[in-house]
Amino acid sequence: MRKKLYIKNFISMAATAMLALQMVLPAAAAMNNTPAEGTTTDFNKYLIINQDAEVPTVSFNYTIEAGVYQAASGTAPEVLSGSAATGTPSISDPAEFTAGDTSYTTVQPGDTLTLATGEKYAKDGVTVSFTSVRFPYPGIYRYIVREITDTAQAGISYNTDSITTRYLDVYVQDTAGDGKLSVQGYVLHNTTDASNSADGYQKRRSTEANSKDGGFQNSYDTKNLTVMKTVSGNQGDYGEYFPFTVVITGANPNTIYNTDITNADSTVTAKANTGVPATETNKITFTAEADGTATVTYYLQSGQSVVIKGLPITASYQVTEGVLATEGYTTTYKIVNTDTSASIVASTAGTDTTSRTIETTAGDKTTAVNQKVTFDNYRQGTVPTGIFLDMVPFLIMTAAAVIALVVFLIGSKNRKDR
User: What is the rounded CA–CA span in Å between residue 7 and residue 152?
Assistant: First the structure.
């Protein structure tokens, strides 16, 4: 009797357990993920410039949008569109460069770029905010970051569309297996490839969380302008200083430009009745105005020159010599390309004694790099020797008469003494 009762109780308990298990299983199957909350990440902006140039005042803006869904295939994982998340990421601050920013002549640790001989670079960080974004599933969410290139900036070269576009992947994972999702890393790259291999996804989601994979890179293409003075002719004043006013248009607003005056004098002396009537100095730096123009004056003797460095290749300039017409010089001038491998890009010769102005229009990198403007002042005089030559026969006759008289007097004195 007791044995039957025990069996009956066991069966009842087993049935109760089975019922409880049936109630638990649906509850476990209905467990929902806790969405991952986005954070922030950043990437670098690199600006490559010539070592002769200063960092220009320029800025670069970016947009971000949801990428395209990419199905898994082979070893490539599934990539979700950013539209599968809720909320929108943002890039509020541009990459900004200003005069005086630090520049590097060698690539710094962690930076992903290559420098050629004679180049340096500056960099700035750009922050992408995902703080208003929630990721509901584990996986890889893709966004597209683009650089805005419709704003013209003097000397800035924008690359092709494939390079001005980057893919920003957000790696989301259920680390503990409890449905609580978290962002494990952000990876910026310039291809649509993604990986879940040990060398790809696993590495990125652990050791490279929030790391930057490259960044955007642009170049600031510049040229140097040399202004040189020569004097010729036997009446030319080789020690006189002549003023040269250089007017530049198309420069970067509020950008500092340097001038090499190694082959000129820092302070020049005045001379009356010339274009330099007072003591002047040659500037080694000047700053472009807000409209991208700049005006600066230099003072040069024959054989001297100054070099204005780091002008944008799209900049144009006008050079005017201030020699006075009353000095009687005839001026010739020309523009040549100082690169020995390049041909003359412009050549002008004239005798304009009124303005003595030469100018170029906007050029490009292949035809307007490192130009030299040379002004020559020629003044030749003829010594009026005709009158002197006309008197020579008379002087010779006079000298002969004097000599004859002296000989006669000496001879007379000798006869008298005898």
Answer: 90
